[in-house]
Amino acid sequence: MPIRLSELAGRLGLELRGTDKTVLGVNTLEKAGPDEIAFLAGPKHVHLLASTRAGAVLLEEKHAPAAACALVSANVRLDWARVVALFAEPQGSLRGVHSLAFVHDDAQIHETATVYPFAFIGPRSVIGPGCTVFPGCYVGEDCVLAENCTLYPNVVLMAGTRLGRNVIIHPGTSIGADGYGYVQGAAGHVKVPQIGRVEIADDVEIGANSAVDRAALDATRIGAGAKIDNLVQIGHNVQIGPYCLLVSQVGIAGSTIVGAGVVMGGQAGVADNLVIGDRAILAPKAGVGRDVPAGTAVGGAPFMDYNIYRRAGLALPKLPELLHRVRRLEKEIASLKGTAAEEESQDA
Amino acid sequence: MPIRLSELAGRLGLELRGTDKTVLGVNTLEKAGPDEIAFLAGPKHVHLLASTRAGAVLLEEKHAPAAACALVSANVRLDWARVVALFAEPQGSLRGVHSLAFVHDDAQIHETATVYPFAFIGPRSVIGPGCTVFPGCYVGEDCVLAENCTLYPNVVLMAGTRLGRNVIIHPGTSIGADGYGYVQGAAGHVKVPQIGRVEIADDVEIGANSAVDRAALDATRIGAGAKIDNLVQIGHNVQIGPYCLLVSQVGIAGSTIVGAGVVMGGQAGVADNLVIGDRAILAPKAGVGRDVPAGTAVGGAPFMDYNIYRRAGLALPKLPELLHRVRRLEKEIASLKGTAAEEESQDA
Amino acid sequence: MPIRLSELAGRLGLELRGTDKTVLGVNTLEKAGPDEIAFLAGPKHVHLLASTRAGAVLLEEKHAPAAACALVSANVRLDWARVVALFAEPQGSLRGVHSLAFVHDDAQIHETATVYPFAFIGPRSVIGPGCTVFPGCYVGEDCVLAENCTLYPNVVLMAGTRLGRNVIIHPGTSIGADGYGYVQGAAGHVKVPQIGRVEIADDVEIGANSAVDRAALDATRIGAGAKIDNLVQIGHNVQIGPYCLLVSQVGIAGSTIVGAGVVMGGQAGVADNLVIGDRAILAPKAGVGRDVPAGTAVGGAPFMDYNIYRRAGLALPKLPELLHRVRRLEKEIASLKGTAAEEESQDA
Predict the structure, then answer these.
(1) What is the average per-residue pLDDT within A265-279?
(2) Which of B219, B239, B257 corresponds to the end of one domain?
């Protein structure tokens, strides 16, 4: 989409310093051409301003003088997201319900929704306005996609899944598969039938090949605005608060309650039936087996306060040598006690 | 399915204490209505008995007096699984082989099996009685689904995969992809062709987006009654014993032999060519690089005895301070030795 | 494929010692029959040579006398890969573009390529000579599969993905989904549109249910000959060098640069914006939060030199006892100091 810099600046509330021109897209400082906008992420890239061929650079006030053509922003990262959004084209190439899709007679597809070939929409499911269901998706019975939701290819929604508005789910993710629930019986593990559902609130985005299990009873819930990365596991009956950030390969076991705005680093794991307080931060690879209080940062497995974790991490490589040092101290003490004992006996 | 409490109690061998009535389903103590059954999971929820609106509560003898209408059980968790099973409806909405499925001319589909649209059944594969193959599943050449198996959407069985009876595989799981086998050649890694298969015994359940690789030669095997969670990795030639429980995000590398009844907590990892003895327990996130004897519980990475692991976990945060303490001790010892040396020289 | 041992030996440059015969396949030493070839992986299996029924055994010179019929090799593992390749049959049963595939009018499918039922090929995508696209695959807009690539079932290539020659991608893997990029806005996390792509060089193999995210701008790249296992996460803008080996469940966060020939063990994790030097080795479960220099081996989380990591791993179980020992030393020192102080006062 070609756009004049002046128009773009006007729309986004930026200040243009330099010659107005038409631009066609965005790129990195290194690769942008004269018809592309780039951005200055931080001070360590300032030297690139001298050599960039970019038609304009989005940057902070203080770096503007170094750019031939500047778009000045008080919040570069946020405004960059808005600039890119102007040029980003949605994926996909079709519109409407394709003849090679399977849509059950009892399903409702809004007239503005798109259903690709090889997508399956089950009975009593509702695909709301502006929703897109890519090829290979399965939407089971009684699901709801409220509005403007995108299911990328091969996403699976098992029966009863409900999505709010603007929910995005990336390829291969499974929503609503049975939770992992068994009871020891006389002859092996007996399955506890999982009859709950998954409810996902507005503005949630879930990455590729993740899994969110349906509840045993009631619902597994993902709160509004939560952003979940690839290959993440959310167990049955888990409750994820609004605005949480769960990075790739995180795993959260059944019935754990995660507060609002919690951040979990990659490969962190949380055991079942715990409470993770609002705004808690779990470092990558943290292993959490007890409740985490609100507002605290933790790391390690078993987890500890984050600052202690960092210090323990620095100390751990010294442990083998520490063992030697303690052994030496013990000998020296024994020797000193021997001396002392000798002296005492001499004194006596 | 509406059922009288008296009939349900009779069928499952429970004792009904309270007024008989018709119930329609199950729910939690908090949410159940008068036509639903709830259950009392443990003593910490006893206070809910006073306020629950549930039509009946499944519970232990000792808590029965506190419930308006009780279903008394000697094994609440097991009986709850059986109660829920009475009301659980299977997922899915179609029957028979759909015209939009691809079934190879040389495949055999039992007349009681269901094959959904967009499922693919390859040559010489056999889909046995009562099996269901959901949309987007791929069943390659020479596969066998013995009886009453369920492949949820987008499950992939590569060539030669054999499933026993009552096997359930959740969405997106890959069975029989090539194992990770390469040899260093003159010009990069040379692939060792993987020509074995996967054999899965009766009553196995595998979660969503997991991966079980085919053997290099012979077979990767999952023993009867094993229950495998989401996002689990099973490498080529691994042998999983019967009744194992592998929790989400566990990874087991090639050719490792896992005994019967082994339990692995979430995100545990096991290296290749090891033997994990019967009934061993791996704590979540355990990292196993040596054999684990039968009947032992281990944790940590590298792993250690579970009780030591717990104590080491409590001790680790004290390590930075311990370094300081030892440094202080060393100084004090040096000072004492100095004193002692001085004394000795004075003595001399 | 039946083949005479003499012909096979001639083709692969092996020496046949024993009676020539026709063989039909390969198997393990334990299971091979008279018309199958087995191989001797290492000295610990030499005892099996006495009992094997194999028609011939591939082995090192020094073990040849113990085999009834030997194929002598200077590099058994590499030659075994070549022997197996002679007998390995490719998966799949169809040829050509199936009528139940969806191929966009603006896509180009080479006449020697195969596209299965329920595969989707988007506009302007190119499927090159000898490529195979299995059922349930999605190839979005503007993708390129250069030559002889295999997409196993349910692989997803989002818009703009480019594959070189001989690329193999196993079931369920997602290439080119949006990277995990958000900016804090006034009302929650604002998505940074991801408009880059993924480029995968020649001879790359990627396992099942992995995820490689598209770049925010520019491209996420996987270098030639890299071999990536199942359930691996590669974040946006990551650059993977040639000939890397990334074992199952590894995770690499955004914009990290991985050099040539790097090996990462299972479940290792690497944070964002780091540089991992050529030929570095990460032990399984390593947690990497700083750059790793070329040629070094590291382990642990936080990571340390591999040899120190091994020693620290052996030392950690002794930590609880070490705390006791230090406490005892402190008491003894206090006691000695008391004695010393006493003596001093006596001396005084």
Answers:
(1) 98
(2) B257
The chains found to touch B (3+ Cβ pairs under 8 angstroms) are A, C
Q: B253 and B124, same structural domain?
A: yes
CB–CB of B213 and C230 under 8 A? yes
**Domain boundaries, position C61:** 3-87
C93 within domain boundaries: no
Q: Are residues A301 and A335 in the same domain?
A: no
What does the block give as tokens for B150? 């369920």
pLDDT in tens, A139-180: 999 999 999 999 999 999 999 999 999 999 999 999 999 999
B202 and B146 both lie in a single domain: yes
Stretch (H or E) spanning A10? helix A5-12
Q: Are residues A126 and A74 in the same domain?
A: no
- Average pLDDT over chain B reads 95
Q: What is the mean pLDDT of residues B285-309?
A: 97
Reply yes or no on whether the pLDDT at C347 is more than 60: no
Q: Tens digits of per-residue pLDDT, C205-246?
A: 999 999 999 999 999 999 999 999 999 999 999 999 999 999
Chains touching chain C through at least 3 C-beta pairs below 8 angstroms are: A, B
What is the predicted pLDDT for the residue at C217? 94
Q: Are residues B78 and B112 located together in one domain of the fold?
A: no
Q: Can you tell me the distance from the alpha carbon of B247 to that of B205, in angstroms, rounded to the nearest whole number? A: 12
In a shared domain, residues B179 and B59 = no
Nearest to C93 among B141, B195, B322 (CB): B141
Within-domain flag for A97: no
Q: Is A110 exposed, middle or buried (0-12, 13-18, 19+ CB in 10 A)?
A: middle
Contact of B323 with chain C, judged by CB distance below 8 Å, is answered with no
What's the number of domains chain C is made of? 3
* Helix, strand, coil abundance in chain C, percent, nearest 5: 20, 30, 50
Residues in a beta bridge with B227:
B205, B245
Which residues 24-63 in chain B show a CB within 8 A of chain C? Answer: none
Tens-place pLDDT, residues B42-51: 888 999 999 9
Q: Which residue has the tokens 């970019």?
A: A54
Closest partner residue to A319 among C188, C301, C319, by Cβ? Answer: C319
- Which positions in chain C touch B253 (Cβ < 8 Å)? 247-248, 266
C160 and C253 together in one domain: yes
Q: Is A317 on the interface with C (CB under 8 A)?
A: yes
Domain boundary among C58, C87, C116: C87
Q: What pLDDT sits at residue A348? A: 47
**Inside any domain, residue C51:** yes
A200/A173 Cα distance (integer angstroms): 14
Within an 8 Å CB–CB cutoff, is residue B248 touching chain A? Answer: yes
Mutating which of A89, A99, A267, A342 best tests the C interface, going by the most C Cβ atoms within 10 A? Answer: A267
Beta bridge partner(s), residue B163 = B145, B200
pLDDT at B257 exceeding the cut of 50? yes
Is the pLDDT at C323 greater than 90, yes or no? yes
Residues of A in contact with C329 (CB under 8 A): 326, 329-330, 333
Q: Tell me whether residues C213 and A224 touch, CB distance under 8 A.
A: no
Whether residue A27 is found in the same domain as residue A108: no
Task: Report the largest interatomic distance among the alpha carbons of chain A, rounded to a whole angstrom.
Answer: 106
Summarised one tens digit per residue, pLDDT across range A297-314 is 999 999 999 999 999 999
Distance from CA of B148 to the nearest CA of C (A): 24
